Amino acid sequence: MPTMADVARSAGVSVATVSHVLNDTRPVLPHTRQAVLDAIDELGYTPNTLARSLVTSRTRSIGLAVSAISNPYFTEILQGVEAAALEHGYSLLIADPHDDPEHERKVVQLLHERRVDGMIVAPSAQPRELVSYLRRHEVPAVFLDRLVDAPEDGTPRFDQVCADSAEPTARLVTHLAELGHRRIALVAGLPGLSTTRERITGYRHGLAAAGFPYDERLIVHGDSESAGGERATAALLSLAAPPTGLVTANNAMTIGALRALRERGLSVPDDIALCCFDDFAWADLFSPRLTAIAQPSRDIGAQAVRVLLERLAAPDRPARIVRLTCTFVHRTSCGCSGRPEQPSQTQQPERGTVS
User: Fold this and answer.
1) Which sign, positive or negative, has the C-alpha torsion 224, 230, 231, 235?
2) Are residues 247 and 187 in contact, defined by beta-carbon separation less than 8 angstroms?
3) DSSP per residue over 275-306, as a string?
4) Sequence-ordered list of residues with C-beta below 8 angstroms from that of 195, at least 6 positions apart, any chain
5) Distance between CA atoms of residues 275 and 245, nearest Å
6) 3-state helix, strand, coil in the chain (%, to 5)
7) Whether the Cβ atoms of residue 217 and residue 229 lie closer than 8 Å to each other
8) What whole-number distance in Å separates Cα of residue 87 and Cα of residue 302?
9) Fewer beta carbons below 10 Å: N end or C end of the chain?
10) For the purposes of burial, counting CB atoms within 10 Å of the CB of 126, is it exposed (0-12), middle (13-18) or buried (19 or more)?
11) Contact between residue 67 and residue 97 where contact means Cβ atoms under 8 Å apart
């Protein structure tokens, strides 16, 4: 197995220069760097990651703590994180906090003890212990998908990457209103999550834009899971005046809602129109095809990696919130059968802007 000394001899440089190239511990002239890289490629040299970490105090690894990895949305985020991490020479250590605040803090501590260089976390609905641990130990971290409230001065304490939730949800509501629906309900997510709050805000804005009064009975929490979505939809259908239009606030709850509608023999969109937040791979295979808001999930994951690497390179820069653009995917579950699919971006800040 070739050694660093073999690389140095082949490139005609010192072992120290090879080390500087591998570890970025000192500037090296471009032609010298290329000679070292050519020698590494020719000899098939594999750096000793453990030894490198002892020199640089970096392991070139990122901890990723995301619940519900089986959810297609988070699976695509994971793929985006992994691709961006590998592109920049980082490996991933992955943990599932199960949306449980106590377990969340434990898995983050375990990742920290594995000496990851930084973390990407989709926080739970009660992230107080998580935030306290990250701040106390000064762990470089990026919050993903779900935002954590900023202090009173409005300055975020951590970098955060997500898609907008409010305006796209409003668009689903106004679309249903334009189709003649007057009782439009929302199956909302887990209380306490920023995504849940923002989608409820968007729902209310959509009602206001359509000139409809807000009726709290038309919002039922499905707790961001399929079974919860089924229960919430059943509760809405049991109202004395049930909704004729339904918005579901994530893909898991959409599945639950469809199950509840099927159990009652109701047809979409003939008996009730349906629009959903989160597009997913088989949404186009349902009958009818699901009108949805598509989040740029892979881009969210990749952007989170880039923001984390920027934080590692400049630890003292101000934290920021980056929001990416969603897409309205127009299909037929809303009742627009016969109209062509019309994907379009929602009117929100452009990709990569800071809010």
Assistant:
1) positive
2) yes
3) EEES--TTTTTSSSPPEEEEP-HHHHHHHHHH
4) 145, 146, 162, 165, 189, 249, 250
5) 8
6) 45, 15, 40
7) no
8) 10
9) N
10) middle
11) yes
Both ends of the chain: CA-CA distance in Å?
A: 51
The sign of the torsion formed by the CA atoms of 44, 49, 55, 61 equals positive
- Say what the pTM is: 0.80
- DSSP character at residue 334: T
pLDDT digits over 3-23, tens only? 888 889 999 999 889 888 877
Q: What's residue 352's pLDDT? A: 42
Q: Do the beta carbons of residue 63 and residue 111 sit within 8 Å? A: yes
Triad 297, 72, 320: Cα angle to 5°: 30
Is residue 344 very low, low, confident or very high in pLDDT (cuts 50, 70, 90)? low
- What is the arithmetic mean of pLDDT over 248-257? 96
Which carries the bigger pLDDT value, residue 355 or residue 180?
Answer: 180
Q: What is the residue-averaged pLDDT of the chain?
A: 89
* Range 290-299 average pLDDT: 96
Residue 309: other Cβ atoms inside 10 A: 19
Provide the pLDDT for residue 58.
65
Q: What distance in Å separates the CA atoms of residue 290 and residue 284, rounded to the nearest whole number?
A: 6
**Inter-axis angle of helices 30-43 and 4-11, to 10 degrees?**
120
- Token output for 64: 């990723």
For 88, the token pair is 């920049």
Q: What is the pLDDT of residue 150?
A: 64
Q: Which residues contact 58 (CB under 8 A, 6 or more apart)?
A: 52, 117
157-210 pLDDT, tens per residue?
A: 899 999 999 999 999 999 999 999 999 999 999 999 999 999 999 999 999 999
Among candidate residues 230, 220, 266, 281, the one with its CA nearest the CA of residue 71: 281
Cβ burial of 143 (10 Å; 0-12, 13-18, 19+) is: buried
Closest CA to 266 of 246, 285, 284: 246
Q: Is the pLDDT of residue 354 over 90?
A: no
Measure the CA–CA gap between 94 and 332, rounded to whole angstroms: 37
